[in-house]
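Hi F.,

I've been meaning to write this up properly since the lab meeting, where we talked about keeping a consistent format for the predictions we share between groups. The idea is simple: the sequence comes first, exactly as it goes in, then the structure tokens exactly as they come out, then a line or two of notes. No screenshots and no reformatting. I'm using this chain as the first example so we have something concrete to point to.
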Amino acid sequence: MNRLKPVGNVSTSLYVYRMEVKLDKTTLPQHGQQVLFQTVIDEEYETWQEGIYNAKAEYIKISKGDIYDMWGDVVRWEPSV
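Output, unedited:
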């Protein structure tokens, strides 16, 4: 179930919401798919990274060799164009 949560500084007159989608097996990329993704740190700085998804080990690997766990590190992803 998607839940809306207030984010940032919230006053009584202005609310900003972000939709959070819980990852499950049906929402993951295909094996070998190139994706754009954000970690918690990337989200803070409004940046995205690009990498290749490994479905067998459930991680994204970027070109410099770092890996990001799909369940522990990644907060959102989308297909790379």
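Notes:
The chain has one domain: 3-79.
Residues 1-19 have pLDDT under 50 and may be disordered.

If this format works for you, I'll send the rest the same way.

G.
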